[in-house]
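Lab notes, practical 5.
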Amino acid sequence: MKRTKRDGTARRCLRARSLGLPAGALACGLFLGAAPAASAQETGGLRAAAAPCAGRQLIANSAERTGFDQVRITVINDGPKACVLKGYPTVALAGQGSPDHNKPLVVIRQGPARAVRLEVGDRASTQLTFTPVLGEADGYCASGAQPSAAPSIVLGVGGGGLQLAPDDGGRFALCGTSLHATAFRGSAS
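Output from the prediction step:
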């Protein structure tokens, strides 16, 4: 009869139990029980791997102002199943019309990107920071750049575009053609 590695392990475990070694008996019990338990978990106990989030399953209501030069955008997985979101958004200034008519901005990435698993109804947020326009009405840029203003932005995420307006009803006003964006992070529902 041919002996396998598992047979040798089983004999050592039986010896540990017979000698009354609780730690060895516990470890061996876990080890010997691991194979059947793992196969049971693979068929239904563990969460299945989720596909990357698609733009059509993500929604967002508005861009929440968190400062004079920052907005937080929260996207929600609107289903039909869990997905994984990783990375940074693209951002473009847009008018009130079609999100396809926009002016892309350069996104300067802030911080590391980690995968965020979004179950249906879960949220993830990104923080956008831009160089603000100074002064009143016909503002100016300290750098000498031309100010830009738009009533909405298009947030590129999951291969789609979400057109959003500021939550305060104002406009997006910034200097230059770039902004900083954090990677998406999970947030409470």
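Observations recorded by the TA: Residues 1-46 have pLDDT under 50 and may be disordered. Helices lie at 5-18, 22-45.
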